[in-house]
Design brief:
It is a single chain. By secondary structure, the protein is of the alpha+beta class. It folds into 2 domains: about 120 residues, YgaC/TfoX-N like chaperone (Yope Regulator, Chain: A, 2-Layer Sandwich); about 110 residues, DNA polymerase, domain 1 (Orthogonal Bundle), CATH 1.10.150. About 45% of the residues lie in helices and about 20% in strands. The protein is built from 10 helices and 8 strands. Strands 1-2-3-4-6-5 form a 6-stranded antiparallel beta sheet. A hairpin with a 2-residue loop joins strand 3 and strand 4. Helix 7 crosses helix 10 and helix 8 crosses helix 9. The longest helix is centred in the middle third of the chain and has 24 residues. The N terminus is likely disordered.
């Protein structure tokens, strides 16, 4: 694959055979270990050992970044992947791959391994993050934990939906409209399938509900979920909507 330029690989995505172009890029990545592409909103998420380290979307390849790896991209002027929400551009923690990765398999592998290491650091940080009680009581009044961005504990399966942090009356009503009145139902379905079921009966349900559900299930504030897992959750949602939730 050496000698194949960025334009050759990337613009092929706009042809009738996008899988061929993706296969070329995956071949360049081969020495970095097995990579599994999964279809997501208009493109693919790239996974290694179950962790998402890259995005192939809008005819571009983006790698996952954190505070350690981001300077390698910003010093080269490689921008983050952005999308528009409520009329404002938002950036994900993925930056554009440098052009030379499409000309040299060794360059591709080096950048892929860096992105894989970034994904591993993020997974390790999530697993080692201290947990706090899902709800705290002050003077007999229930107070949601985690709304200030701190970690919280996963909500037990036996708790009532009304006791779930960050799920207010409006969210509870939408869940009820979808026939979900007990938290064990949500636990069994998972955040993505729960949100898809709600969306089917209440089209106005925003993605904030998805972030809140995933946060309650994983013991994280919804703001952190939105920042860290937006791409993978949207990819999973697209799969569920495609198959019919």
């Amino acid at each position: 694959m050496a000698g194949m330029g960025r334009t050759t690989v990337i613009t092929a995505l706009g042809t009738a055979h996008p899988s061929d172009a993706l296969a070329h890029a995956l071949e360049l990545m081969a020495s970095a270990g097995p990579v599994t592409p999964k279809r997501m909103f208009g493109g693919h998420g790239l996974f290694h050992q179950g962790l998402m380290f890259g995005i192939w979307i809008e005819e571009r390849l983006y790698f996952k970044v954190d505070t350690i790896s981001r300077p390698a991209f910003t010093t080269r002027g490689l921008p983050p992947f952005t999308y528009v929400s409520k009329g404002q551009p938002r950036a994900l923690g993925y930056h554009l791959a440098p052009a030379e990765v499409f000309d040299d398999a060794q360059e591709m592998v080096a950048w892929v391994r860096q992105a894989q290491a970034t994904a591993q650091r993020a997974a390790l940080a999530a697993s080692s993050r201290p947990r706090k009680p899902a709800r705290e009581r002050v003077s007999g009044a229930a107070v949601d934990a985690g709304q200030d961005g701190r970690s919280q504990a996963p909500v037990p399966a036996v708790v009532a939906i009304a006791e779930v942090p960050n799920l207010g009356p409006a969210s509870q009503a939408m869940l009820a409209q979808a026939g979900l009145t007990r938290w064990p139902q949500v636990v069994a379905l998972g955040a993505v399938r729960t949100y898809a079921r709600v969306k089917a009966v209440q089209p106005r349900a925003s993605l904030n509900l998805l972030w809140a559900l995933e946060g309650a299930l994983s013991g994280r504030p919804w703001q952190q979920v939105a920042a860290d897992d937006r791409a993978s959750l949207l990819m999973a949602l697209e799969d569920v909507l495609r198959e019919g939730a």
